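[agent] plan:
  1. take the single chain provided in the ticket
  2. run structure prediction with default settings
  3. attach structure tokens to the ticket
  4. add a short note for the reviewer (M.T.)
[agent] executing step 1
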Amino acid sequence: MIRFKFGLPGLALLSMEIYACATLEATLLPKPKPKDDWREEMNKLADRAHRTYNLIVRENPDFVPYFRTITPLNALSQLPLGSRPAKRKQDDSIETLRAIPWIFAWT
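[agent] step 2 finished; step 3 output follows
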């Protein structure tokens, strides 16, 4: 992604212009007041997404074995990517994984 956005001088300049304009617009212009019905719908969506995530990732005993099969998690866990071990304990749950291998595996 870095090479794609900044690999050539012209692209780098354009990317920086886009980032600078977006930052200025987001910080200098007044924020629009969210509509109450939009906020209500977004809260419903967030609650549903949270419940679904927990159902799939935390409450499904088949998720961790599946995740290990379809991602490079095992290989990433062996790399010295941080100052701490890749796992906290030896059990096979999401809670025992360190952040770096977990995030790298699903991204």
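[agent] step 4 note for reviewer: The chain has six helices and no strands.
[agent] ticket updated
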